[in-house]
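[09:14] KT: can someone run the structure on this one? pasting the chain below
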Amino acid sequence: MERFKNDGIIDKFCSLYIFEKDGKFQETIHLLKYKKIKSIGITFGRELGVKIENELGKFDILTAVPLHKLKYRERGYNQVDYICRGISEVSGIEFKNDLIIRTRYTKTQTELTFQERKENVKDAFSVNRKYYELLKDAVVVVVDDVITTGSTVASAGQVLKEAGCKTIYAASVGLASI
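[09:31] RB: done, structure tokens below
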């Protein structure tokens, strides 16, 4: 919880693997992200779904960190959606891929410092209005492929808290060593 220690947004989180640059896991994530091998995401999601149930407990809503529409158009899909599909298979909780909207294009976080990452994703998300009623007192899991500083999931979680969510969990396939 060190990454989310002082933010008051993310209540608990879990990850499957430690993400090390230039390792096998990075190669696998790149196959999912850039080579469109979507089955990798579903497989990771099934594994992550079991870990979520064991470590985080019950939840009401499952969602992914969204891509900006320009990035989505460029890539053709959001790799985290496939991770969420695998989680949904295991948990039986429906995946809401349009719950959070990325309202602002942000530059890639890979070369940014902790503070720069936080600023980069500040005010980058909003909640889809059609879900406001559903979010009241809900327990939501926000999923990303890799968590480094936690800035992205915390920023997404912030708008969910503001919309009335009781508890925000974060989950990822990889946790970057920082």
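[09:33] KT: thanks! The chain is about 40% helix and 20% strand.
[09:34] RB: yep, looked fine to me
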